[in-house]
Amino acid sequence: MYRWFEKYFAFSRSELTGICVLGVLLLAAWIAPYLYRAWSTPEDTALSAHIDDIERFLATASEPAPAADRIAAAEYFPFDPNGLAVVDWKRLGLSDRQVRMIKNYEAKGGRFRRREDLKKIYAINASDYARLEPYIRIKAAAIYGEPDSATVPSDGGRPPADRSREMVVEEKLYLDLNTADSLDLQALPGIGPVYASRIVRFRDRLGGFHQAEQLLDVYGFDTLRYDGLKTYVYVDTTKVTKIALNLADYAQLNNHPFISAKLANLIIQYRKQHGPYRALTDLLRIAIMDEEIFRKIVPYLTIAND
């Protein structure tokens, strides 16, 4: 037995030395990760503290709280950005840095000829522009690059054609919503090509605006945008197209944005069961018709000449 054990498990001195070295290396490899984590803890802590310092600096640099305070305390009024005083820019909720960049732009000869030109100022972000856009009023002199009235003779010093062109611009700032095309509508504050197109499409489906407040029914239109332009628009109700209540079919009624598919069907069914409508108030006998819906649709209906 001893000879068998000695044959397979006996080691020379050099072999025993190699085994011991290998064991030490394996033990060191096993312990090394724990030692590294223990030794690197102060460095990681310092790095975390450094990252915290950077984050605090960035938060301070962005100044979220003061910006929010400025916007909350902003005073909105119609303004021409060309030559607007520093104090007025601050009334609108802009920071010293934003005002400084605007004034640098003007000092280099920059002019605001369209509302969108305010976006050229790097410091004016999308949210600032969105809240200021409805109040921007750029004078015709700025649009055409003409001198200010204070620096020219009383007749403007301009050719008659230029003066008449300026008058056209001024006239466009009081529009009939039922006759203005999309280009005319873009002259209104806060209205670009997208909203102008939406207004025209909605007006065509509606049959014309009965009152200016119906702009709020246009997709995406809000109170802020409407308040910015309501003094520049009116409606001529004689331009409203009406639906002959006793002749209209389901498709014609359902195409109106204020008449749902269910209501259109009930209007037709009531007419079939009770005969022609004698008065518009007969619609109130329909089960789902309430006074709010009635007031919205009645300007677009008629029983005359049926």
From TrEMBL:
Return the SUPFAM superfamilies for the record.
RuvA domain 2-like (SSF47781)
The keyword Protease belongs to this UniProt entry's keyword annotation? no
Q: Name one Pfam family in it.
A: HHH_3
Q: Which GO terms describe its cellular component?
A: type II protein secretion system complex
Q: Does the keyword GTP-binding apply?
A: no
Q: Any transmembrane segments, and where?
A: 16-36
Alphabetic keyword roster = Membrane, Transmembrane, Transmembrane helix
Q: What is this protein called?
A: DNA uptake protein ComE
Q: Which InterPro entries match?
A: Endo/Exo/Phosphatase_dom_1, RuvA_2-like
Coiled-coil ranges from the UniProt annotation: none
Which species is this UniProt entry from? Parapedobacter koreensis
GO biological process, any: protein secretion by the type II secretion system
